[in-house]
């Protein structure tokens, strides 16, 4: 997933959407993974209010950058596959949605076939067909509907230059629909993780006769349990009501307990948390899908037993790290990079990120979740507080007996990730090893432009990455596959690594349709790359989010790390 700061989007959603946005087993409340958020069973009825900072803009399945179908989008848009709506590790699995299974590959995973379930209908009662899914994908290629994940253009055979159905009436030959319930995808290379991709909202069906182009987002035709009845100010205020033609018999994942979903955005994060804390009136049946508790707020909540019982805890596949550009001296010397890895004090970094309740120290680039292939390792073991003596030893071997002076680039955004607090913690730790660090703080847009350009990328900077889906593939490939180095655009391979053995292993793993076997290979590759000291993993974030006192049935999976609104019930 691309960096969640770019979408919190590749999560997002992502979303991302990320975008939205935005580990170990996740649950809520923290001490009971099976808790329903109250002492009574969930029931149907009522209104669920969603209080968010960011508007649910571009509410068109072609334009959304989501994983698993998204959170709010997944209430309206069903896809071929989706995420398993379970707590923790089980929630990182991909499961069928509109399709009868997660897909049937040919021998080399270059052709994937899906069959739609029987009885699928849109909100107006008309049947959902395979041609609608093909059309929904094709319109996502239209330049005026850009914004979704880029994988389809890369993966589908002959799709690189396709401009969408408004300009090219012939459509994509890589997608075949031999009958109303069958759809076949032809890929230009093996992709064992295609079932994960089929969770993106671009796979939502769109009836061609109802397509209104860029205006479709105001009233997209629902295939999910809710339909859009109001969309004000480009997603700032969304109201969803029940889709009478949705059938739970065809949908094992969404519970659809509330009658109405009222999404209100553009709110200050502190206001959101204050309203959820007070839980007065409609706010008692409210949640947030994008606002965490900050360190100060968490300290206040932790001191109130009743409030603490209304905090959902989750983990999303996401890593904050120090990045090196080995083309810039002295970072061309592996010993200098290794010295910095030894000098980092992760305990101080975790404290700067809000403390152990909001951040977990990281020594692996892959998040510490099974689905990613997490394999515990630490190529430069320095303990929780760093090893400045070992760092000095390596610096001496590199010719810097008297230390050296470096510049660390970071964002000025107060995000507790790439912000001044984290940069200062790194600065203080490196000083103990004889390394003087000058901090270069940039406004967020300038920071992104600088670190994502091969021409301007600094030698040392703070970065982060989030998953498009819970697997090592979209985590390691964009950052370490040499063929993904972009010289004249947004580049994420920060270490500019182009190692044939790494590239070949990525291709070999991509052929695997056994996702458990693939995960083990991703973990081994992470370890191999980690030994090159191109990044220094710092921490994985922990999400802590309040929900209202009348909210029931809390489910937080390791896919999204946040409360799943498709499972929630209210009094």
Automatic annotation (TrEMBL):
Compositionally biased intervals (Basic and acidic residues): 208-218
InterPro entries cross-referenced by the UniProt entry: Peptide/Ni-bd, SBP_5, SBP_5_dom
Keywords annotated in UniProt: Signal
Annotated CDD domains: PBP2_clavulanate_OppA2
Keyword Lipid biosynthesis: no
Chain residue ranges for the region called Disordered: 28-48, 205-228
Domain Solute-binding protein family: 93-483
Signal sequence annotation: 1-26
Pfam families in the record: SBP_bac_5
Name recorded for this polypeptide: ABC transporter substrate-binding protein
Organism: Streptomyces lavenduligriseus
């Amino acid at each position: 997933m691309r960096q969640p700061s770019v979408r919190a989007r590749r999560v997002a959603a992502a979303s991302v959407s990320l975008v939205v946005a935005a580990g170990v087993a996740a649950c809520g409340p923290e001490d009971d993974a099976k808790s329903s958020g109250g002492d009574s069973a969930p029931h149907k009825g009522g209104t669920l209010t969603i209080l968010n900072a960011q508007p649910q803009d571009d509410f068109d399945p072609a334009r959304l950058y989501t994983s698993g179908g998204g959170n709010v989008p997944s209430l309206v848009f069903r896809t071929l596959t989706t995420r398993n709506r379970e707590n923790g590790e089980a929630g990182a699995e991909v499961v069928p949605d509109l399709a009868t299974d997660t897909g049937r590959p040919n021998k080399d995973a270059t052709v994937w076939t899906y069959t739609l379930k029987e009885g699928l209908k849109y909100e107006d009662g008309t049947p959902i067909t395979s041609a609608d899914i093909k059309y929904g994908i094709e319109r996502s290629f239209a330049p005026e509907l850009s914004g979704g994940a880029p994988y389809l253009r890369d993966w589908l055979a002959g799709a690189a230059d396709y401009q969408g159905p408004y300009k090219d009436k012939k459509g994509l030959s890589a997608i075949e629909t031999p009958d109303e319930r069958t759809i076949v995808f032809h890929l230009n290379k093996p992709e064992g993780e295609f079932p994960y991709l089929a969770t993106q909202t671009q796979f939502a069906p769109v009836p061609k006769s109802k397509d209104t182009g860029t205006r479709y987002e105001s009233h997209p035709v629902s295939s999910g349990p809710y339909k859009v009845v109001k969309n004000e100010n480009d997603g700032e205020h969304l109201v969803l009501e029940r889709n009478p033609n949705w059938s739970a018999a065809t949908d094992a994942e969404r519970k659809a307990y509330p009658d109405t979903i009222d999404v209100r955005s553009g709110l200050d994060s502190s206001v959101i948390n204050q309203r959820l804390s007070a839980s007065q009136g409609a706010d008692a049946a409210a949640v947030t899908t994008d606002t965490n508790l900050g360190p100060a707020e968490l300290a206040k909540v932790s001191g109130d037993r009743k409030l603490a019982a209304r905090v959902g805890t989750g983990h999303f596949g996401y890593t904050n790290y120090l990045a090196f550009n080995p083309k810039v001296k002295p970072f061309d010397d592996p010993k200098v990079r290794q010295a910095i890895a030894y000098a980092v004090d992760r305990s101080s970094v975790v404290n700067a990120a809000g403390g152990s309740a909001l951040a977990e120290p990281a020594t692996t680039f892959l998040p510490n979740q099974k689905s990613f292939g997490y394999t515990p390792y630490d190529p430069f073991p320095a303990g929780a507080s760093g090893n400045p003596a070992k760092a000095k030893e390596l610096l001496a071997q590199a010719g810097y007996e008297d230390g050296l002076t470096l510049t660390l680039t970071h964002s000025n955004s107060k995000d507790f990730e790439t912000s001044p607090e984290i940069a200062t913690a790194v600065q203080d730790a490196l000083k103990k090893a004889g390394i003087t660090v000058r901090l270069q703080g940039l406004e967020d847009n300038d920071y992104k432009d600088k670190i994502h350009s091969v021409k301007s990328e600094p030698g040392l900077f703070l970065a982060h990455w989030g998953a498009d889906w819970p697997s090592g593939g979209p985590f390691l490939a964009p950052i370490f596959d040499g063929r993904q180095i972009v010289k004249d655009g947004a580049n994420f391979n920060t270490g500019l690594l182009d190692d044939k053995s790494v590239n070949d292993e990525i291709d070999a793993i991509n052929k695997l349709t056994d996702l458990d076997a693939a995960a083990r290979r991703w973990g081994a590759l992470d370890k191999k790359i980690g030994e090159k000291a191109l990044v220094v993993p710092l921490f994985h974030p922990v999400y802590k989010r309040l929900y209202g006192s009348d909210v029931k049935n809390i489910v937080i999976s390791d896919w999204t790390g946040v409360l799943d609104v498709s499972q929630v019930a209210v009094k």
